[in-house]
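User: Okay, second chain of the day. Same drill as before: sequence in, C-alpha cells out.
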Amino acid sequence: EDGTKILIKGAPDKVLENCQLNAEDNKFWYEQIEKMTSSGKRVLAVAIIEANKDKKELNEKDLDTKAEILGLLGLIDPPRSEAISAVKECQRAGINVKMITGDHAGTAKAIGIQLNLSNTESVLTGKEIDQMSDSELREYVLKIDIFARTSPEHKLRLVQALQSHNKIVAMTGDGVNDAPALKQADVGVAMGHKGTESAKEASEMVLADDNFASIARAVKEGRNVYDNLKKAITFLLPINGGESGSIMMAIMLGLALPMTPLQVLWVNMVSSVTLAMALAFEPAESNIMTRPPRDANASIISGFLVWRIIFVSFLFLIGIFGVFTWSIQQGYSIEYARTHAVNILVVMEVFYLLSVRKIEPPQLKIRDFIGTNAVITVGFIVIGLQLIFNYVPFMNTIFDSRPMGVEAGVLVMMCGILLFIILNIEKLIMRKMGKI
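Assistant: Same drill. C-alpha cells below.
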C-alpha cells in the first residue's frame, strides 16, 4: 500500500480535536463518548493518519495533519465492593471522601455514583480549575467531591484549598506526578504494588495491598490506639490519686499511714502496671467508626476524663481510708489494717479496670463485665500475686503483711463490686447529660 500509517490512541476529546469531522459526525462521536462514560467505562479513541511512504521518524508536527477516527474503546474497571464499603464506613466516621482523577468527567461521575460519594451532581474538571482563582477554588472544593481531567498542578491546588479550611487531608497516589500533592498533604498515602519510588518517598504511609479499604481499617486502628491510651491514663491516674490522697489524709489527721512505702511500691509495680497492660489489647468499641473526627488540637485529657479522674480518685480514697479505719476500729493490729488497705486498693483496681474498658456505654452484658482474654489473664495473675502477698510467710516478712480473714475478704470484695456499680450509674448519668 502507498504511504505510512500513524496510529493515535488517547483521551477521546483530545484525539477528536485532531480529526477532520463535520458537525454531524462530531456530534455523533461525542454522543457515543457520553453514552460510554455515563456507564462508568474508561474510553479511549483510536485514529489514523496517512503519512508519506518514506516516513521513518515521528514528531509533534505530524499530529498537525488531520486524522481519521477509527473508533472508541470502552474499558470496564468498576470499583471493588470492599472499596464501596470502605467509603461508606469513612463517611459514617465523619471523613469526607473525594475522587481526583485524570479520567473523563462522565466516567468519573459514574464511578463516583457507584462509590456513593456524597456530592455527585457536579464534576469539576481541570479546565475549570485553571480558570479559577485560589479563593474561588477554596469556595468550590468543599461543595464538590469529584474532580476529573486533573493534572499534578490541579491535585496540588486542591490539597492546598482543602487545607485552607483547616481540614486534615490524606491524599492517595501512585505516580511520579502525584508526588507534589502527596508531599503537601497532611498524610500522603502511596500504593505499595504499583506505586513509584518517588510517590513512596513523598508519602507518610504506603498501602501494601493498594486497597482503599486498608485506609478505613487504619483509621479504625488509629482510633482504637488513641482510645486505649486514654483508658490507660484514666486507669492509672485515679489509682495514684487515691493512694496519695489516703496517705495525705492520714498525715493531716495525725493518724498512722494506711500503707507503708514498700506496700505502695508493690501495688504500683506489680498490680497497677500488670492491669494497665491489658488495656493495650482492648478491641475497638462498637461505635468507634460512627464518631466524628476529633479536633487535632484537642488535649487527650477531655473534660469528662478530668471529672472521671477526680471522681474515681475520691472513691479510691474513701475505699482505702475507710477500710483502714474500719480495721483499726474492729481491733485489728496496724499490720492487718494495712494489709486490708492494700487488698482493697488491688480489688478496686481490678473492678475499675473492668469499668474503664468501656468509657462510653454502660456495661450491662456479661461479656462486658468479664472482659477480653487479656483482662481475664492479668486478673488471674494479679489475684495470684496478691494471694502470695497475703499468705506466703516470707512475703509477710518483707512487706509486713498478714493473712487476711474471711470477714475482711468479703468486705473488700463487696467494696470492689460497689465501685463497679457506682461507675456504671455515673456513665448513665453522664450519657443523659450529653457528656459522653
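The mean pLDDT is 88.

User: Thanks, on to the next one.
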